[in-house]
Structures are given as structure tokens and as C-alpha cells.
Sequence to fold (140 residues):
Amino acid sequence: MFTKAKKKDSSTGANAKVPEHYNWQLGVLCSVFVGFLASILGIGGGIVHVPFMAYILQFPVHVAIATSTCILAVSSLSGMLSHAYLGHIAWTTGLGIGVGAFIGAQMGVQIAQRLKSSYLLKFSSVLVCITGIKFLMSAF
Fold:
């Protein structure tokens, strides 16, 4: 992702448009896989969805990020309801941290709107690498 970032358009969030045609069946198939992984591993799924939508489905980066956030909301609601039914949620902690995430998300949208797509892709690729290294270090 990092090396391909310079080849992407340099548009910002204001210019991003949803593609008129894309392979939605492939998108659903990817989301089933990501939803499965997210529920058993506790990951958000954006680490897979954003590159998938940007490179396979050819979504503009800003649209891929926003769409991934929407997917995460639906997936999280489903997982939250299941875990709530099983009594696995620490509500005070979850809601407190959720407020912080809500505020951070608003700030992130404002900043992302002003950034070029290539910068967002580079930043995403660095975060994916850091996350991968953290997972590997935790496993050993």
C-alpha cells in the first residue's frame, strides 16, 4: 500500500465520489470473511476492508475509509448485541472509551477531509505494519 500510494489520485475528501459500478458480490464475500475474523479476533475489520475497497473495488480512498466505518458500525452492533446477550461486556468501561472514540472519530473526519488520498494510504499502510508487528510480537 505504501509504495502504491503515490500512484493513486491526489484528491481530497471533498472530491471523493462513490463509484457507479463495482463488484458488490465480491464486496459481500469479503465482508463475510472479515466479519468472521472480527468476531473471533476482536479486530475492527478496516485493516482488511480499506485496502480491499481501494485496490480491488477501485473506491477512492476517502470513500473506502468512510464505507469501512459504516461497515464497522453495522458489524459492531451485531457483535455487541451477541456479547451483551452472553454477558461479556464491561458496560462502564465500554461506554466511557466509546465516548472518547466518538470524539476522536469526529476529529479524524475533519483532518482526513483535508488530506490527499496518497497521504491517507501511506498512513494506513504504516498502521497496518505496526499492527502486524504488534500481533507477531504478542504471539511469540
Remarks:
- The chain has a mean pLDDT of 84.
- The radius of gyration is 16 Å.
- Helices lie at 24-41, 46-56, 61-86, 91-114, 117-139.
